[in-house]
Every structure is written in C-alpha cells, then in structure tokens.
Amino acid sequence: YLPMRSLIFLAILSLLALTFPVSIASEPSPVQDFCVGVNTPSDGVFVNGKFCKDPKLATVDDFFFTGLDRQRIATNAVGTNVTPVFADNLPGLNTLGIAFARVDYAPNGLIPPHTHPRASEFLIVQEGSLYAGFVSSDQDGNRLFSKILNKGDLIVFPVGLIHFHVNVGRGPAVAFTAFNSQNPGLITIAKTVFGSNPRINPNALAKAFQLDPRIVMSLQTKF
C-alpha cells in the first residue's frame, strides 16, 4: 500500500489534472447569480476587471440593450461601423464570458484582417453578402478557409486566428457577431504592425515584408 502522504499527493495531482485544462480554456466561472459591473469601488467588490454592484440593487436594465435593429452609417476608412455589446455598455454581461456586436458595412466595406486573442467568434449574416474567412497557423501551413456568406449563413473563427469579412454585395450589409469572452481583445494586423507606438524600425518591417523601406514608411503614415 502507498503511504498516506503519497496518496494525498496523487489525489492533489488528479484534481489538478481535472481542473487545470478547464481553467486555461475558459474564463473563471461566476460564484453568484450575476456581478453587474460598475466602475467605482464604493459600489462593491472588484471581480474580473469590474466592481460588482450590490446584487440587491440590480435591475432588469442592467441586463438590457436596445437599438440593434437600427442601421448605422459606415463612414470610417474601411467602410464599416461596429456597435459593440460588451460589459462596458451592458453591465450585466460582467463575468458571464460572452459579448456581442452588430456590424454595418457600406458597399465594399470590410473588417480588416485581425485576431481576438481571448475568444472564438460566430459571425452570422443578417442582410447582404459577405466574403469571410480565416487563416490557420504557420504550423498548419497558413491555409485559408473562406466562404461567400448570404443572409442566414454563419461562420466560426477559431480563437487567436487571423480572420476578416468584406461586403461583396451590391448594397449595404449587416452581420452580428458573438464571442465566448466578455473581453475578446482585438489586434488589427495592419494597425498593429504599421501603427505601433513608437514605430517599428522600417528597415525591419521592410525585410519582414520584402518591401522597399520607403513603402513601409509610407504605410506607417496611414496608421
């Protein structure tokens, strides 16, 4: 028979084996019904980047968001307008591990190649047609998985992989996205590479992208 100390050690290892994969694959589980996020410490305790309102003071409006049926005009440089529904503007989402957004696309508008380091993403088309896809990692050969999506179609972008979506229809388009994190994070590839603060040495980027340094410096002025 194993000594008691060895049995205890094995029991601890078994518990770690069961719990550790879960802890690194998802956000912490809440230990109460909800934790409505507020920004001032006088209102409660600090949990997952937010202070929790006293649960007895929570109301239905803490869990309610309206206006996702309204079209937004896409006026930025890439022709899209994103309406996020995150814990910052829907406090009841705090600690629930989910987030949501509406995306409005002008004709030819796009969401440029980007990643979400902390979440996978659903994209479902409400109106119009989108060309959407993601690229696998270097280890998988950087394969492109892409599809033309029409109304009612859905695609999933795995966590951390570069992905994009662009309006290829004749008019405006609308899509909704959902994330399995309340704070999925956003790394826009072009903005990160060419718009860092301070700037990355253009000679380094020129070698990385096999470009003339003057082209790199021109790109850096755009971000």
UniProtKB/TrEMBL annotation:
<dbReference type="InterPro" id="IPR011051">
    <property type="entry name" value="RmlC_Cupin_sf"/>
</dbReference>
<dbReference type="Pfam" id="PF00190">
    <property type="entry name" value="Cupin_1"/>
</dbReference>
<keyword id="KW-0732">Signal</keyword>
<keyword id="KW-0479">Metal-binding</keyword>
<protein>
    <recommendedName>
        <fullName>Germin-like protein</fullName>
    </recommendedName>
</protein>
<comment type="similarity">
    <text>Belongs to the germin family.</text>
</comment>
<dbReference type="InterPro" id="IPR006045">
    <property type="entry name" value="Cupin_1"/>
</dbReference>
<dbReference type="InterPro" id="IPR001929">
    <property type="entry name" value="Germin"/>
</dbReference>
<dbReference type="InterPro" id="IPR014710">
    <property type="entry name" value="RmlC-like_jellyroll"/>
</dbReference>
<keyword id="KW-0964">Secreted</keyword>
<feature type="domain" description="Cupin type-1">
    <location>
        <begin position="66"/>
        <end position="217"/>
    </location>
</feature>
<keyword id="KW-0464">Manganese</keyword>
<feature type="signal peptide">
    <location>
        <begin position="1"/>
        <end position="25"/>
    </location>
</feature>
<keyword id="KW-0052">Apoplast</keyword>
<keyword id="KW-0325">Glycoprotein</keyword>
